[in-house]
Design the sequence.
């Protein structure tokens, strides 16, 4: 079964002076359980692609099937609904909420999907244990190291048990040791069945994945499948 | 250096255009409101300042105590003025003056009603009236003379060269113009358009010779060095020396108190009159100004977090605290001056509607030194108040903390103060809303009160010429007009009763206690015309002579006389004279005060003292046609009609004005507060944009995010309501105690005010909140 299936996907940014074709008729398929890296030089459209795959942005042309459902014509509300039940995000700059504790940050997606308090607590505790940060559950993001913050961000992305995790340069702001911790976490998740798409510039990180999609100027250059 | 500050300040205002506009508009409205209020206050405080000898001018107050309650009047006996002038040293001038008379003046073809007073010659001298023609010494040397104001002379004759010209009065006698005086300014206690010798009035009213009849005003000017305590001591029991057994006490009442006090409690002690409104609105003016300043403080500290880096860097580079303070202060001062300029424009623009509202002719007079200094002070004050807190707050930032980016520590204190200030703003607004509603409801409550008869359709005109003598035939002719239902004569206009006495006795009455009883002299049709209900006994016989020793009393008096039937009981003055038999009891109707219960009243069937012709007409028909038919009967052009329902409404002039003003300033306070709230909401939305985006990515709905952004503000407004409730309640409870007939404080008024404030706040905040919530989250996440 394919989690994502896109054909001739287009995204064009129009500003007053220029028109940027950020994605130019891109097609590919991602199957359930895959771990895919998207690579390419700066400005080639990786983040744009990821945002569209994450239903955060709309597309200007082509078809986009998520779990075999055509979603290119979904409205804001339907997309939000699809998003909160199926997709987890990890960003390069962690994007934790400064005013909330570690526990509360991780709990947030569960609140939005409407899970009861007691159940929430159980689920959050479980993920925090798994990423070995439970002892810091009442700390604020500012009090954690970058690596710890990104692990919390990953925990927040997976607490809902989403089918798909989208990670935009998750190790970009981390040193290699912390980066490896995060990559290990993602690999573990993938082994437990979660599909992961990760934008990265690091050859080293791409080695954790099954497949690398190479992009250039809004187009796909190669999609090599590793063994 | 200074130039540099100004430059940076302007640059900052431009950079934060929307905040600057919010601040300036709020402050401009605040300053303009303050300016209007202070113009009004100035006018009130300088009342009668036109009279340079104001300190020496007095009117004589008469106080009488009945049943432990003291009543204070302006009415004094006719012989008083002349007598005290000779008897009491220190009194330079003393003059009698009538209450004010409306006369029909006929000059050639022109017939014009004009109001004025009959006064003694001393009156002209003590007020230093400015004679343009003639002079104060000779003006009243002839009996039938008259002094006109400049305006009036021009109205009648087209010029002021009118000495010796004759004017026909009320279609009967003629007065010769003996002087023209300059018009008095509006803010004096006098509004006469003509003055005529008191002698004319005296000759027609023999009762003016009585010491026991308190019926006219007496004005006094003392010698500049006179000992007031001495005069007061001599004057206090003066009447007792003339009229034995009198319980009337006199005292001097300074012109300084006429306008803003002239209110007395039941012990006869002076209490606040309209001065309380002058004080109240001065306070409101300052509060509105402060509310506007709060906007600047809040927005400045809020946006300062954006500027924290700038401050941190500057400090790291060695800029000291003082320079930073000066920079922020110059920003707020520049803003205050821009606002003041705008405020002047606003003030000019709204002055004429404001004048209409308060029934005055205030002018901005921007170049009067007092006004310039006042405006300057207010502007500086605003600039300094608004600027000082942000200045000291910002300049005390710890540069290390800021550059490290730990903003949560730096803003918690300021955040708290900001919340406090928003609470202050909304508390004030809610208090004003509650007061507006309660004052309005109180007025409506009294207006809708059953006053004992139907006001609508009742109108009266003052008796002139032979109208009173010929009443029999006039009435017959009036009743031939189908729209006229009935007509009668009476001595005080309905809604009032001007004569009263405490001399009456009846069998069984405690002789040591006197009861003040109102007296009305009426023609037999009085009760049926007004539509009063008889409770016992009968109405007057159509033949007035048959009832010459009979009276009809009201319920309030009947209750005092006996619990049982009082018809047949006799009432008489304690010094003997006629014994009057009660033949009827009329149900209570209100007169003089619409706020209290009806006071005891006697009706005499004696129209010889009548001053008014009262009619009941059918108002469903064309009123204008009816009136012109009436005019042909009473043979005057353009008579002075007074409709009771309109007169009734006029009784609430002060309260209605207070209610309108409270409403206006409540709206302004709310508006300025909301401007600030909008600015603050925009700022918060901006600051939380990233957080909102993250939440949105994690699945939060637009509604949820809007609530999230609105919630905090809502909390503040709710706290503000909780603070406002007891304050407004206490305040209004006390205000209502001034009125015997008043509404009860109702919880719904408070709930309504709270709902109003909350919904206005929600609309203001959610506008920005929704905009933030529906924005595409990628944008703000990217900008990190
Ligand atoms: N909101 C926008 N408006 C206009 N142009 C945009 C917008 N967002 C992205 N672009 C343009 O689209 C192109 C692709 O941008 P994108 O952010 O997807 O690149 P990227 O591959 O993620 O680069 P990087 O590796 O630097 O993150 C770029 O040329 C960029 O300038
Ligand atoms: Mg990118």
Sequence:
């Amino acid at each position: 079964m394919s989690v994502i299936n896109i054909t001739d996907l287009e995204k064009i940014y129009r500003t007053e002076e220029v028109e940027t074709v950020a994605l130019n008729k891109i097609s590919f398929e991602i199957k359930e359980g895959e771990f895919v890296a998207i690579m390419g030089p700066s400005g080639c459209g990786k983040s744009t692609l990821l945002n569209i795959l994450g239903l955060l942005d709309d597309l200007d042309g082509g078809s986009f099937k998520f779990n075999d459902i055509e979603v290119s014509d979904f409205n804001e509300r339907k997309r939000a609904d699809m998003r909160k039940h199926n997709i987890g995000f990890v960003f390069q700059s962690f994007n934790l909420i400064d005013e909330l504790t570690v526990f509360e940050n991780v709990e947030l997606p569960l609140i939005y999907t409407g899970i009861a308090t007691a159940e929430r607590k159980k689920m959050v505790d479980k993920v925090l244990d798994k990423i070995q940060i439970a002892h810091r559950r009442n700390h604020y993001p500012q009090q954690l190291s970058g690596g710890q913050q990104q692990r919390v961000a990953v925990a927040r992305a997976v607490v809902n048990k989403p089918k798909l995790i989208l990670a935009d340069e998750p190790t970009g702001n981390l040193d290699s040791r912390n980066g490896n911790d995060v990559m290990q976490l993602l690999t573990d998740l993938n082994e437990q069945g979660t599909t992961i798409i990760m934008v990265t510039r690091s050859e080293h990180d791409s080695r954790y994945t099954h497949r690398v999609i190479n992009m250039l100027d809004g187009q796909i250059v190669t999609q090599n499948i590793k063994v | 250096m200074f130039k540099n500050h100004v430059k940076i300040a302007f640059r900052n205002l431009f950079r934060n255009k929307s905040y600057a506009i919010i601040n300036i508009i709020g402050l401009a409205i605040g300053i303009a409101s303050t300016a209007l209020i202070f113009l009004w206050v100035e006018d009130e405080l300088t009342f009668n300042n036109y009279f340079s000898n104001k300190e020496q001018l007095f009117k004589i107050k008469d106080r009488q105590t009945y049943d432990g309650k003291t009543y204070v009047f302006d009415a004094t006996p006719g012989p008083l003025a002349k007598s005290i002038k000779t008897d009491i040293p220190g009194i330079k001038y003393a003059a009698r003056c009538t209450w004010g008379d409306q006369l029909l003046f006929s000059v050639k073809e022109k017939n014009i009603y004009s109001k004025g007073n009959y006064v003694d010659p001393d009156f002209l001298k003590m007020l230093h009236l400015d004679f343009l023609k003639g002079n104060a010494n000779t003006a009243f040397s002839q009996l039938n003379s008259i002094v006109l104001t400049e305006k009036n002379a021009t109205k009648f004759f087209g010029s002021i060269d009118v000495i010796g010209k004759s004017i026909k009065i009320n279609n009967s006698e003629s007065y010769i113009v003996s002087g023209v005086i300059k018009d008095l300014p509006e803010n004096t206690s006098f509004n006469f358009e003509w003055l005529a010798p008191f002698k004319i009035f005296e000759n027609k009213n023999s009762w003016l010779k009585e010491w026991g009849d308190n019926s006219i005003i007496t004005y006094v000017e003392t010698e500049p060095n006179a000992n007031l305590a001495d005069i007061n001591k001599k004057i206090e029991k003066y009447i007792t020396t003339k009229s034995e057994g009198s319980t009337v006490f006199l005292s001097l009442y300074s012109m300084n108190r006429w306008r803003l006090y002239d209110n007395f409690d039941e012990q006869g002690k002076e209490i606040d009159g309209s001065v309380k409104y002058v004080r109240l609105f001065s306070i409101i003016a300052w509060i509105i100004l402060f509310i506007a300043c709060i906007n600047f403080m809040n927005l400045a500290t809020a946006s300062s977090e954006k500027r924290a880096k700038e401050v941190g860097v500057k400090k790291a580079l060695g800029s000291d605290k003082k320079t930073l303070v000066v920079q922020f202060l110059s920003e707020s001062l520049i803003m205050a001056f821009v606002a003041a300029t705008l405020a002047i424009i606003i003030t000019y623009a709204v002055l004429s509607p404001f004048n209409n509202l308060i029934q005055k002719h205030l002018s901005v007079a921007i170049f009067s030194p007092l006004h310039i200094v006042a405006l300057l002070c207010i502007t500086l004050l605003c600039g300094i108040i608004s600027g000082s807190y942000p200045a000291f707050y910002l300049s005390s930032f710890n540069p290390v903390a800021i550059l490290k980016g730990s903003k949560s520590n730096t803003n918690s204190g300021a955040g708290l103060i900001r919340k406090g200030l928003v609470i202050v703003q909304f508390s004030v607004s809610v208090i004003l809303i509650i007061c507006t509603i309660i004052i309005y409801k109180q007025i409506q409550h009294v207006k809708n009160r059953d006053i004992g008869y139907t006001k609508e359709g009742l109108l009266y005109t003052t008796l002139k010429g032979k109208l009173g003598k010929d009443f029999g035939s006039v009435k017959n002719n009036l009743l031939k007009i189908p729209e006229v239902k009935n007509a009668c004569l009476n001595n005080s206009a309905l809604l009032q009763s001007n004569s009263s006495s405490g001399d009456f006795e009846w069998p069984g009455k405690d002789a040591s206690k006197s009861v003040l009883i109102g007296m009305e002299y009426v023609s037999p049709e009085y009760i049926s015309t007004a539509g009063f209900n008889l409770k016992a006994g009968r109405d007057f016989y159509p033949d007035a002579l048959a009832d010459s020793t009979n009276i009809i009393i009201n319920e309030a008096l009947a209750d005092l006389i006996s619990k049982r039937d009082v018809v047949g009981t006799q009432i008489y003055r304690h010094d003997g004279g006629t014994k009057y038999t009660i033949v009827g009891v009329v149900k209570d109707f209100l007169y003089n005060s619409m706020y209290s219960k009806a006071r005891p009243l006697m009706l005499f069937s004696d129209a010889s003292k009548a001053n008014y012709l009262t009619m009941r007409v059918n108002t469903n028909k064309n009123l204008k046609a009816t009136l012109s038919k009436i005019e042909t009967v009473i043979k005057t052009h353009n008579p002075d009609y007074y409709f009771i329902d309109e007169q009734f409404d006029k009784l609430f002039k002060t309260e209605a004005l207070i209610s309108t003003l409270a409403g206006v300033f409540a709206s302004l306070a709310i508006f300025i507060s909301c401007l600030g709230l909008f600015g603050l909401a925009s700022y918060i939305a901006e600051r939380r944009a990233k957080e909102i985006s993250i939440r949105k990515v994690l699945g939060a709905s637009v509604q949820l995010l809007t609530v999230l952004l609105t919630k905090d503000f809502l909390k503040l407004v709710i706290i503000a309501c909780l603070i406002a409730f007891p304050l407004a309640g206490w305040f209004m409870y006390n205000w209502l105690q001034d009125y015997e007939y008043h509404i009860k404080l109702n919880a719904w008024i408070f709930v309504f005010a709270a709902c109003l404030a909350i919904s206005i706040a929600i609309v203001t905040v959610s506008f920005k909140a929704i905009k933030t919530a529906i924005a595409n989250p990628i944008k703000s996440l990217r900008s990190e």
Remarks:
- Chain A has a mean pLDDT of 90.
